[in-house]
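INFO  loader      accepted 1 record
INFO  loader      residues=109
INFO  predictor   begin
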Amino acid sequence: MPDPGDLFLFATIRPKPAHFDDARAALDSLVPLTLAEPGCRVFAAFQSGDAGHRVLHLFERFRDQAALDLHYAQPYTRAVFAKYEMWLSAPVDIVRLNPISLQASAQFP
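INFO  predictor   done
INFO  writer      dumping C-alpha cells
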C-alpha cells in the first residue's frame, strides 16, 4: 500500500518550438537517472497527443519532500533546469496532487 506521505506531482513543460526536440531529449535522459534515485517511485514523461501543441508533461511520485529535494539537487537535474532557462517559452508549471484515496494512488507504484 502506498505511503500517505508520498508526493505526487504533475509538471507541464512548454518548450519554444525551436528547442522542443532538445527539451524532449533532455527530459528523456532524466528518466533512467531519476528512477534510480532511492526516493523516486514514478518518473514518467509524456508528450501532448495533439501535434499542434508541442508540450511535454511529467508525472512524478517521490517518497517525501526530502527525496524530491535530493532529486532537484542532482547535477543532472540542475543541468536540465539550466538549459530550460533558454529553451522554454514559460516556466515549468508544477502542480502537487493529493490522491483522493490511497487505493487510487496504488495504481501508480
